[in-house]
């Protein structure tokens, strides 16, 4: 399998956040989901840069809503994971599981100490 | 609770377009909903800034941009190619660092020029060039009546006229009618003033916009003549409903009526042509069918907004409306008398909105353009002098000196562009504050990406003028020299460009100086005009009685109740500490018109050219005392002039002079409001006041007593024995004590009211004075530098004016002054032409300021000469110190 078809760690986290949020997934909620659930401080710029990249790869799609007065008249940009995105996520998970097979960190720690 | 404006602005300028709106919206939503509550206001701001910087780093870092463009591989190659220029820039940085004073001065001069240029273009683009924020704005027109013989230009329309236009006009696709009025929203027992608009239900669909929340008006919303539903502006939604997205369906009490909110407009929506000081906050639907509330052909209170049908031009529509006007004149001669000049004008909406600000903005751009010219020419002339000195020192070949000039020009303009960025942002914000209310659409102007492009463009131009031109000129004169051209010829060529540059600075500075002088004189003349009433220590409060949709149910429908309200309010105000006297009037001077047609009993008024018109005012007898408007003949209005007594008016001197020349008007009767109006006896003649503007002659006016003709929208005037602002709060409270549901719309001192009429002119005057103050010393520095390094055309190059080894300032003063004066004459010749042009724009009918104004000409010429002489004299002492910086250092290669 070519290297480009696996996802980076942050890409995986972002796609997982999109799947968890479902139809409520837009920039702000994705950022907060990553902070709350993954407990990882994330900047909105990083989230959008990653989502843009995933969209360029065809793994997610996005669309704008009408201007929203509660956001100063700015629209929301909602995101949705495409089937290709779900497959890429599954492949990445399988790759990691294959790599973890046979690895025992505790045993390694004892061996090195 | 708003995020930091500067951070948000940075995002709006620098974030890529595809994510800009979403990111700004996300950050704002999170800031408002979570960040402040979770982190506290201070840390929330820090958090916001961090997020903004992260977005910019992710999308705008040079590394990412290079990677995006696939240019990383080529950077090394690119860097090798212009190695010479890079080294020149490097050496220029060193040279400028050693001559820091020069570098700092030149950078600041250029930055001020570039920054103000970007500000001017931003304003012009936003006000004049940017399309109106509606769908296909080029098709939108305002349709106004012309009755020059009666009411003048831009006359509003009546409901029957609206129906006629709608039925007959084929060139328009839709026609909306609006009527602006003040109203009050009762909120927690207190009445808050609000600017409202009654509109036909099609206004928003005609403009091609729809509410951001809720829905647009529908035909079924109207019951009777008016609807009991409303659409709110964003501001009103935040103010009265706390910005609650579930507020649709909420009921507000507007002028006592329960009104259901059905929609909220987007934040950036503005009502076409609405004042930025009092933006429209509420729209309610109205019906203009036959038998409706406003159904009177003479009741012209509607503003009409139309959309041209596809394929129709303004000219075609104008021709059609002219025919409609003729048809109406034939059908209703009593409303459109043959000598009234009746016609209908079709005016593009953009021209209607920004027309008056056009000349102000163009003057502003002209002034800024002159400053940019002065600053570029100044730095170019300084660099030219440095190049000359470098050559003269013999340590540089012309090619190396020219390359260093290019390098220095590049470094200076790059540094200036960086400094100019915050200057331009600050300039734009200051301009918005300084000219607030005076220039339509200015409040919506933002310093954005396109202004940045102009800034870069201006910097490039500055670089070409400052860096490239001196270098090219240096190489050209050297080529002439090597071709063995006559020394006088190449020296003349060498001095030529510098002379032109210095003369350009002097010319620009002279035009700015003279324009500032003329404007100061013009303003002086204007503010010295006696308006005919007292402005000292007079406070004004505008109050409006609420009128429900069915006026008969209103608390103030009964006229006696209205009179009682004003009587009690006046009593309360007179009892306030610091108030000497209180009065009330329907229309304050300098606050709009109220033209009425009238007739004189016993005379055929229509025989004159045009129907007679007057400004009709309702006032309390005490009003004339507060405003110190004196009596000429007869008597003033008296407290006894009430509804039981005959209807009387006092007229002003202008009316008496115009309509009763050599006759006594006292005892004569007027018919007010047209042929079927009310008869009023003239009981007195009072002094005329300038009621529209300080530079406009007083118009004929008549005043009736508020006890005989009382309105709902009145302004209290209070004479105080202290600063009027001190009693403002107590006076507003006094109104509320009398009736809690009567809102006080505006509170201002009379001096402020008059001051606003000259605000635009005052702003331009200050601007020109500031720019002149900046340009004069800059031009003086240009003369100093040019004189210090000028090569004489008749002597050996080495023995230039101040550069001889045995320096003797006094010996060189004469030649320096002669050279300085030659430059001054060149500059003055060019500057005078510009001054004549500017004077035509500045002159006002009252100010008597002409370009031959002796004070301005004398003062301007003296200042101009002083600057040129000071520059020449200082050059003598500067010559010894002036070393040309690093350009004179030996160097074997670049």
Any key phrases for this structure?
heterodimer; A: 113 residues; mainly alpha; Arc Repressor Mutant, subunit A; 56% helix; B: 894 residues; 4 domains; six-stranded mixed beta barrel; 24 helices; 16% strand; disordered C terminus
Overall pLDDT confidence of chain B: 79
Counting H and I runs of at least 4 residues, what is the number of helices of chain B? Answer: 24
Rg from alpha-carbon coordinates of chain B: 34 Å
Strand content of chain B is 15-25%
Please mark out the parts of chain B with pLDDT under 50 across 5 or more consecutive residues, or reply none: 69-81, 791-808, 844-849, 879-894
- Output the CATH homologous superfamily of chain A: Winged helix-like DNA-binding domain superfamily/Winged helix DNA-binding domain
What strand line-up does the widest sheet of chain B have?
3-4-11-8-10-9
Hey, which two chains have the biggest interface?
A: A-B, 25 and 32 residues
Question: Based on DSSP secondary structure assignment, what is the total number of beta strands of chain B?
Answer: 24
Domains of chain A, number: 1
**Spatial gap, N to C terminus of chain A:** 37 Å
Domains of chain B (count): 4
CATH architecture of chain A: Orthogonal Bundle
Shape of chain B: globular
- First-residue to last-residue Cα separation of chain B: 57 Å
**Helices and strands of chain A: which structural class?**
mainly alpha
Task: Write down the overall geometry of chain A.
Answer: elongated
Report helical residue fraction of chain B.
40-55%
Structural class of chain B: alpha+beta
Determine the mean pLDDT of chain A.
87
What does this structure look like?
The complex is a heterodimer of chains A (113) and B (894). In chain A, helix 1 (9-21) crosses helix 2. Chain A has 113 residues and is mainly alpha-helical. Helices cover 56% and strands 9% of the residues of chain A. Chain A has helices spanning 9-21, 27-37, 44-56, 83-100, 105-112; strands at 60-64, 77-81. Chain A has one domain (7-102): Arc Repressor Mutant, subunit A (Orthogonal Bundle). Chain A contains five helices and two strands. By secondary structure, chain B is α+β, with helices and mostly antiparallel strands. Chain B folds into four domains: 1-81, no CATH class; 149-340, no CATH class; 486-528 and 759-888, no CATH class; 556-740, no CATH class. Helix content of chain B is 50%, strand content 16%. In chain B, helix 1 packs parallel to helix 3, helix 7 (100-129) packs across helix 14 (398-434) and helix 16 (487-527) crosses helix 24 (854-881). Chain A binds chain B through residues 26-28, 31-32, 43-46, 48-49, 52, 64, 66-77, and chain B through 18-19, 21-30, 32, 34, 50-51, 54-59, 212-213, 234, 237, 243, 245, 264, 266-268.
């Amino acid at each position: 399998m070519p290297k480009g078809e696996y996802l980076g760690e942050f890409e995986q986290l972002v796609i997982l956040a999109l799947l968890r949020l479902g139809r409520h997934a837009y920039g702000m909620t994705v950022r907060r989901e990553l902070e709350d659930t993954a407990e990882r401080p994330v900047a909105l710029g990083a989230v959008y840069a990653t989502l843009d990249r995933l969209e360029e790869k065809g793994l997610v799609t996005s669309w704008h809503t009408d201007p929203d007065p509660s956001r100063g008249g700015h629209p929301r940009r909602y995101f949705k994971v495409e089937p290709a995105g779900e497959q890429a996520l599954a492949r990445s998970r399988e790759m990691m599981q294959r790599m973890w097979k046979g690895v025992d960190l505790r045993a390694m720690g004892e061996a090195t100490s | 609770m708003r995020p930091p404006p500067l951070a948000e602005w940075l995002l709006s300028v620098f974030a890529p377009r595809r994510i800009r709106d979403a990111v700004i919206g996300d950050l704002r939503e999170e800031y408002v909903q979570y960040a402040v509550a979770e982190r506290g206001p201070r840390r929330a701001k820090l958090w916001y800034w961090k997020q903004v910087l992260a977005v910019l780093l992710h999308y705008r870092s040079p590394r990412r941009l290079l990677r995006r463009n696939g240019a990383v591989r080529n950077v090394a190659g690119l860097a090798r190619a212009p190695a010479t220029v890079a080294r020149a820039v490097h050496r220029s940085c060193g040279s400028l660092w050693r001559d820091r004073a020069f570098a700092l001065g030149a950078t600041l001069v250029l930055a001020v020029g570039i920054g103000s240029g970007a500000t001017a273009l931003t304003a012009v683009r936003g006000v004049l060039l940017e399309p109106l924020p509606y769908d296909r704005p080029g098709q939108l027109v305002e349709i106004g009546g012309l009755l020059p013989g009666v009411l003048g230009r831009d006359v509003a329309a009546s409901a029957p006229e609206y129906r006629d236009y709608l039925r007959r006009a084929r060139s328009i696709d839709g026609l909306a009618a609006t009527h602006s009025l003040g109203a009050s929203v009762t909120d927690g027992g207190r009445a808050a003033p609000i600017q409202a608009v009654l509109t036909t239900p099609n206004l928003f669909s005609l403009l091609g916009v729809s509410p951001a929340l809720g829905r647009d008006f529908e035909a079924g919303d109207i019951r009777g003549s008016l609807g009991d539903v409303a659409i709110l502006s964003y501001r009103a939604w935040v103010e009265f409903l706390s910005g609650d997205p579930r507020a649709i369906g909420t009921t507000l009490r507007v002028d006592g009526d329960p009104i259901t909110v059905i929609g909220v407009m987007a934040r950036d929506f503005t009502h076409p042509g609405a004042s930025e000081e009092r933006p429209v906050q509420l729209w309610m639907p109205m019906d203009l069918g036959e038998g409706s509330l406003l159904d009177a052909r003479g009741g012209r209170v509607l503003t009409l907004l139309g959309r041209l049908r596809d394929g129709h031009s303004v000219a075609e529509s104008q021709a059609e409306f002219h025919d409609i006007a003729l048809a109406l004149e034939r059908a209703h001669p009593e409303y459109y008398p043959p000598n009234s000049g009746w016609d209908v004008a079709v005016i593009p909406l953009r021209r209607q909105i920004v027309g008056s600000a056009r000349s102000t903005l163009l003057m502003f751009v002209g002034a800024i353009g002159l400053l940019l010219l002065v600053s570029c020419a100044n730095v170019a002339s300084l660099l030219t002098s440095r190049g000359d000195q470098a050559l003269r020192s013999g340590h540089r070949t012309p090619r190396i000196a020219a390359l260093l000039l290019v390098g220095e020009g590049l470094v200076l303009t790059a540094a200036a562009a960086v400094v100019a960025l915050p200057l331009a942002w600050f300039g734009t914000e200051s301009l918005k504050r300084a000219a607030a209310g005076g220039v339509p659409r200015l409040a919506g102007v933002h310093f954005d990406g396109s202004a940045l492009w102009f800034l870069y463009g201006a910097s490039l131009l500055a670089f070409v003028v400052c860096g490239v031109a001196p270098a090219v000129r240096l190489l050209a004169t050297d080529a002439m020299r090597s071709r063995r051209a006559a020394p006088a010829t190449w020296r003349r060529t060498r001095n030529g460009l510098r002379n032109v540059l210095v003369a350009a600075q002097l010319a620009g500075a002279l035009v700015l100086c003279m324009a500032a002088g003329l404007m100061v004189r013009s303003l002086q003349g204007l503010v010295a005009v006696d308006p005919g009433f007292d402005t000292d220590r007079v406070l004004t409060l505008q109050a409006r009685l609420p009128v429900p949709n069915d006026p008969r149910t209103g608390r103030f429908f009964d006229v006696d109740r209205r009179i009682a309200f004003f009587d009690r309010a006046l009593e309360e105000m007179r009892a306030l500490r610091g108030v000497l006297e209180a009065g009330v009037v329907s229309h304050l001077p300098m606050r709009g018109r109220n033209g009425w047609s009238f007739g004189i009993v016993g005379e055929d008024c229509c025989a004159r050219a045009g129907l007679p018109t007057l400004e009709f005012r309702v006032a309390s007898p005490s009003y004339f005392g507060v405003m110190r408007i004196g009596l000429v003949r007869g008597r003033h209005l008296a407290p006894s002039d009430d509804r039981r007594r005959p209807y009387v008016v006092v007229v002003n001197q202008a009316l008496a002079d115009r309509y009763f020349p050599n006759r006594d008007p006292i005892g004569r009767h007027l018919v007010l409001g047209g042929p079927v109006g009310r008869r009023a006896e003239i009981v007195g003649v009072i002094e005329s006041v300038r009621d529209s503007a300080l530079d406009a002659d007083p118009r004929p006016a008549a005043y009736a007593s508020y006890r005989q003709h009382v309105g709902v929208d009145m302004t209290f005037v209070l004479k105080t024995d202290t600063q009027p602002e001190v009693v403002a709060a107590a006076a507003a409270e006094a109104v509320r004590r009398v009736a809690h549901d009567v809102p006080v719309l505006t509170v201002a001192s009379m001096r402020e009211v008059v001051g606003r009429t000259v605000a635009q002119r005052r702003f331009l005057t200050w601007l020109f004075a500031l720019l002149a103050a900046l340009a004069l010393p800059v031009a003086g520095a240009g003369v100093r530098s040019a004189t210090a390094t000028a090569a004489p055309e008749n002597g050996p190059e080495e023995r230039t004016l101040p550069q001889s080894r045995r320096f003797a300032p006094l010996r060189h003063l004469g030649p320096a002054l002669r050279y300085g004066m030659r430059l001054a004459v060149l500059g003055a010749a060019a500057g005078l032409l510009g001054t004549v042009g500017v004077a035509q724009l500045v002159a006002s009918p009252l100010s008597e300021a002409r370009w031959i104004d002796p004070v301005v000409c004398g003062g301007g010429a003296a200042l101009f000469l002083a600057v040129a002489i000071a520059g020449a004299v200082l050059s003598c002492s500067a010559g010894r110190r002036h070393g040309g910086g690093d350009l004179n250092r030996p160097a074997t290669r670049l």
